[in-house]
């Protein structure tokens, strides 16, 4: 029979003991870690026997942990993580705490799992957040409003009276609210949106924090609020100019039309310090008709509003004027019959993306005033779209504003039966809609890896979904907000990989929907021949003290792996080679390597291995594996590669 000699891919290094050499070898060994379940099955038995024979190290425990963890045998993994954490606390890595916690969650030990997760975070462990990846989702309304899912909630600033007409102002919103007076408007007033005969409205402001929560409400300062109605402001970007709606009231005097109706008008105010002053009536107002609910376009050179002025098609229409120099304005322009109907169109708002939002009870909706949107172009507008529930309802829904992709507000009286008195302001945000996707590729070649198993697990280590990749090598999972996930990829012949990541806690604060691109790369495992157990066991270096040949305690753990293999596989025969680097005299290095080879072989004899299964030889510096011969200036790292012990398995 021919003698086949297989050199172990991962050699034992016989090294002079030093801190620097330990660090370098650690890097080499780490790069050669094995994480494939087909290799684990045999390796686990060897590791278990090594531990049973009384040999322990953090590296052995960690390998045992991983043989169970990556095969989803969490109860078994928990046992070995416990030993690793308690017997070798100085060698524990942050990821060990995380994986131990995940195992305990799977076995129902939640309190201890929580403690380990806190330790994981304290040791610097953290999950990737969505900010780590590019958001490739479409922004709001690029696909059309019908594709969007929203959530809404009443704001905390609502009162028992009418609250409506929010506007963005710096990091605040400004809105109209009835005061607590029981006195109603004493004469008939025009109704552009149903807020006549209510306690008088004033303008209030409230700061919105980073989590989109509202703080304390306070009235606007200055000459804005009077004993009549003020509402629906619009602010310039620099915050120095405000347009707002007020009853026909200026300088303490109220004016009526020929039918004794007090109309609505738009006024302009300028901020002076922290107060609003220098209030001016806009020139296209009239005592004979109403003009209200102003809205600026993004360029701030056009003002939109609602009015029933002559030329109006219905009860109220949307109009605009161009803002000229020196507080002058163009002639009002009706937006035409493609938007305006015989009923009411009112409460315009133009977003930074030049989308016009408005309310109408003449266009087809769910009932009452409904909210619609259209894209404004240079001289016309796009198709008109509307919202379904929960934004629109069977009652009045109006005064919609939004920072597209982030947060919005609108007004509705859906929760009451008292008309305008039931008006409340709602906050709106897109429902959490997160998709994670990506290819799995070879880390070296970049080629796609079909047939990879990709698994999504929740924070309790429960499998949510598992897929086998097709030819395109792509995976896709749908996620919830405020959750921690693990994504794990495994393929035969590759080191498995997992990523820990968290989704946003507050969907109000981030653009939705989110599509996360998370490409995963897998590293090819070092190929092991079928009976190359040394490769499968990822044997660690054997260290000798300087100028010594006796076996150290830390080296015994590694030799115990070979011993276990010899016991499990009686056919194995091993030849031990010992090599040195080129430093020192050639003859001395040869003798030193021979002593170390024999010392290693004697260790096995003492453990009961028969002499017929072992042989050993020292080669000194005669078989260098690089250019570092006598007289060549080499780094310690390169010399280190030559100081090695090799175990050749003979079959």
The CATH architecture of the largest domain is: 6 Propeller
Annotation, overall tally of beta strands: 37
Shape: elongated
Q: Can you tell me the number of structural domains?
A: 4
Class of the largest domain in CATH? Mainly Beta
CATH topology term of the largest domain = Neuraminidase
What is the alpha-carbon Rg in Å? 38 Å
Total of DSSP H or I helical runs spanning 4+ residues:
10
* Classification by helices and strands: alpha+beta
Helix content: 10-25%
Mean pLDDT: 80
Please state how the strands of the largest beta sheet are arranged side by side: 3-31-30-27-28
Supply the CATH superfamily name of the largest domain.
TolB, C-terminal domain
User: What percent of residues are in strands?
Assistant: 25-35%
Q: How far is the first residue's CA from the last residue's CA?
A: 10 Å
Unreliable spans: 1-41, 130-147, 181-196, 256-260
Main β sheet profile: 5 strands, mixed
Subcellular location: Cell outer membrane
Pfam families: CarboxypepD_reg, OmpA, PD40
Signal peptide: 1-23
Domain OmpA-like: 531-651
């Amino acid at each position: 029979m021919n003698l086949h000699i297989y050199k172990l891919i991962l050699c034992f290094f016989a090294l002079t003991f030093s801190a620097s050499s330990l660090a370098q070898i650690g890097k080499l060994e780490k790069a050669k870690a094995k994480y494939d379940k087909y290799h684990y099955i045999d390796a686990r038995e060897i590791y278990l026997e090594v531990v049973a024979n009384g040999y322990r190290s953090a590296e052995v425990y960690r390998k045992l942990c991983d043989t169970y963890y990556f095969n989803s045998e969490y109860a078994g993994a928990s046992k070995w993580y416990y030993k690793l954490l308690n017997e070798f606390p100085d060698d524990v890595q942050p990821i060990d705490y995380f994986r131990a916690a995940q195992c305990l969650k799977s076995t129902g030990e939640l309190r201890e799992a929580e403690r380990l997760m806190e330790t994981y975070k304290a040791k610097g462990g953290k999950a990737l957040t969505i900010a780590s990846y590019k958001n490739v989702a479409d922004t709001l309304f690029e696909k059309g409003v019908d594709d969007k899912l929203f959530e809404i909630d009443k704001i905390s600033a609502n009162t028992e009276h009418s609250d409506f007409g929010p506007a963005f102002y710096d990091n605040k919103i400004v809105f109209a609210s009835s005061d607590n007076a029981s006195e109603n408007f004493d004469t008939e007033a025009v109704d552009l949106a149903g807020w006549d005969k209510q306690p008088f409205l004033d303008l209030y402001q409230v700061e919105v924090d980073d989590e989109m929560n509202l703080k304390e409400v306070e009235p606007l300062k200055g000459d804005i609020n009077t004993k009549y109605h003020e509402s629906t402001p619009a602010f310039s970007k620099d915050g120095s100019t405000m347009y707002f709606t007020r009853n026909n009231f200026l300088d303490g005097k109220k004016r009526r039309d020929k039918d004794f109706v007090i109309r609505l008008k738009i006024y302009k105010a300028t901020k002076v310090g922290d107060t609003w002053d220098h209030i001016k009536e806009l020139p296209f107002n009239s005592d004979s008709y109403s003009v209200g609910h102003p809205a600026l376009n993004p360029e701030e050179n056009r003002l939109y509003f609602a009015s029933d002025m002559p030329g109006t098609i219905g009860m109220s229409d949307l109009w605009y004027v161009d803002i000229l120099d020196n507080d002058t304005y163009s002639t009002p322009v009706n937006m035409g019959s493609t938007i305006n109907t015989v009923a009411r169109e009112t409460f315009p708002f133009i977003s930074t993306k030049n989308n016009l939002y408005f309310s109408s009870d003449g266009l087809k909706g769910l009932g009452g005033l409904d909210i619609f949107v259209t894209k404004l172009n240079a001289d016309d507008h796009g198709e008109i779209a509307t919202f379904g529930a929960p934004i629109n309802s069977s009652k009045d829904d109006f005064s919609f504003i939004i920072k597209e992709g982030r947060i919005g507000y609108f007004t509705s009286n859906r929760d009451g039966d008292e008309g305008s008195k039931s008006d409340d302001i709602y906050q709106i945000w897109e429902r959490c809609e997160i998709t994670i996707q990506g290819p799995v590729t070879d880390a070296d070649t970049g080629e796609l890896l079909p047939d990879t198993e990709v698994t999504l697990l929740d924070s309790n280590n429960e499998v949510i979904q598992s897929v086998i990749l097709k030819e395109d090598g792509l995976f896709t999972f749908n996620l919830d907000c405020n959750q921690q996930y693990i994504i794990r990829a495994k393929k035969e012949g590759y080191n498995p990989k997992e990523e820990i990541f968290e989704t946003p806690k507050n969907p109000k604060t981030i653009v939705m929907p989110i599509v996360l691109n998370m490409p995963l790369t897998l590293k090819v495992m070092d190929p092991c021949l079928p009976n190359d157990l040394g490769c499968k066991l990822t044997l660690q270096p054997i260290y000798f003290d300087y100028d010594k040949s006796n076996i150290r305690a830390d080296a015994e753990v590694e030799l115990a792996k070979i011993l276990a293999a010899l016991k499990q596989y009686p056919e194995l025969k091993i030849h031990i080679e010992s090599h040195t680097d080129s430093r020192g005299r050639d003859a001395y290095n040869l003798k030193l390597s021979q002593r170390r080879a024999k010392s290693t072989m004697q260790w096995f004899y003492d453990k009961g291995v028969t002499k017929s299964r072992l042989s050993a030889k020292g080669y000194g510096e005669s078989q260098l594996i690089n250019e570092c011969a006598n007289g060549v200036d080499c780094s310690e790292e390169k010399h280190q590669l030559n100081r090695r012990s090799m175990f050749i398995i003979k079959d």
